[in-house]
Structure formats: structure tokens, C-alpha cells
């Protein structure tokens, strides 16, 4: 086994936290990965990782070696990329996590387009709104819609996510249209469970922040389900425009409270903070940023103040 492969194996072990997890992500047996580590330590004449049946820790020599190793691997990766004048061929596994509704509606065609451009790519997509642990679960990257507070991750913004408050015409006819935040106390709200707080925040036209406790009639962990419930007249939703833009244009849903601003979010692609970023990850990120740049198509031409 070549030294670069052994170095790469060592880096993966350190970043995942144990040999078993690293072997699973590299799709090799644990014993083979242990041999790679042993070969590297024997060639260096020093122990990089102290390991017992119950304990795992990187030695001081291992810490120093890891910092140099990730830089060397990054340099080799850049060298290989810059040497070829031909179109980069992306191959191998790419494991990504994307939000369910945003992924199915807006990322699915892009993912298929990318795989058509790179037929040797082996892509695995997890459609879920849960916040995955990239390192422990072996994801190369994830798409998250948030205000992104986790500073331990690298991130690139790919799209603004604007919010809109809306309800069906039938609901508004039966219950009336709220004109101020205080009016929501008399209305039924359909709430996304990953944003579980019953407190809705508004910025008034004069810039004052108002916090209102809303009456949650129904909650769910999927925006498409809540949209359908709103179309059926069961309540008011505060939701990303990418979920309801077609229904607003068709008249199935009516935007309300447009003069009051609510918090907007962003869609980010996140990945572990390592300079050794594979070509397939780097190229896929660049592809998403390029294809989603500018005004999101779902917001273009919408005759609605998107509260952003």
C-alpha cells in the first residue's frame, strides 16, 4: 500500500474519531484499515494513535502529523486538478443530505443533471429535514436551510429563502384576514415542528419588533403537508416561498400581512472543515452555487411582498 493511501487512511481515522467508523466510510474492512495505520506508524517509527479496546486518542506526534498530512493531501489534490487541461472527470462516491421539500422540488433536477455530466459518480442522497452529523454519519456535504449558527462547519450560501404568511381564500372568508400581529391570537396556525416555538416575530412598518404567541391548531415536520392543510382551509401558515409559490400564483393561497416583515433564512451547502476537499465535493458545490445564483426562480414574478 502506498504512503499517500496510508496517510489518507490516518486522516480519515482522526476525522471520524475511530477505526470502525472510518473503515465503514471508506468501504473497507476494519482489519485492513488497522494494517494501513500500522504500516504508517512503522514507517515513521512512532505511534500516531493510542488505542485500546475502549480508548482512542491521537498522540502529540499524531496531532502534528495530522496537521501536515491534511495540507499534503490538499496540495496533491490541487496538483492533480491543475495538471490536467481536460475536463475534470468526477468519479467515486458522493453522499449528501438535503431537506425533503427543498430537495425534491429544487435540487432533484440539479442532482440528476450533475450525475449525467459525471456518469462515473456514485451518488447517495438522504432526503430528510433532520440535522445530520456529517462526520459521524459519513456525509460529504449537506444542504441546510437556517441562519447557520454552527461555526465548526464550512458553508457556502446557495440561495436566499424568503418567508411568506398565507392562507386559503376560504379560510379568510370564514375567519377574516388578520391585519395586525395581535389578531393572530384569534386564528388557527399550522406550525412546522422543526421551528417549534409558538412565538412568531414580526417587524412592524415602523421597525418595531413584536412577538406574538400564536394558537397552533396543527403541527407537522413537513412543509408540503402543511401547505395542503392550508389549501384545505384549516389555518394560516408561515412558510418558505419555494413551497407555496405555485399555489399563490394559482390563487389557492393568499398572502397576508405583507407590510410586516418576518425573519428570512438562507440555504447553505455545508461540509467538514478540512482543506482536503475532494474534486467531486468541490465540483458539486461549485455547480450548485452557479446554477442557483441570482434571484430564485420561485420568487421571480411573484406579485407578493415576501416579508424579507
Describe this structure in words.
This protein is an alpha/beta fold. The chain folds into 3 domains: 3-83, Arc Repressor Mutant, subunit A (Orthogonal Bundle), CATH 1.10.10; 92-161 and 266-291, D-Maltodextrin-Binding Protein, domain 2, CATH 3.40.190.10; 163-263, D-Maltodextrin-Binding Protein, domain 2 (3-Layer(aba) Sandwich), CATH 3.40.190.290. The chain is 40% helix and 24% strand. It has 10 helices and 14 strands. It has helices spanning 3-16, 19-26, 30-44, 60-83, 100-117, 134-137, 169-175, 223-231, 241-250, 279-291; strands at 49-51, 56-58, 92-98, 121-127, 141-146, 154-161, 163-167, 188-192, 199-203, 209-213, 215-220, 236-240, 254-256, 265-271. The strands form 4 sheets. The protein has a 5-stranded mixed beta sheet, covered by helices on one side. Strands 11-8-12-7-13 form a 5-stranded mixed beta sheet. The chain has a two-stranded antiparallel sheet with strand order 1-2. α1 packs across α3 (30-44). The longest helix has 24 residues, at 60-83. It starts with a helix and ends in a 17-residue tail after the last helix. The mean pLDDT is 86.
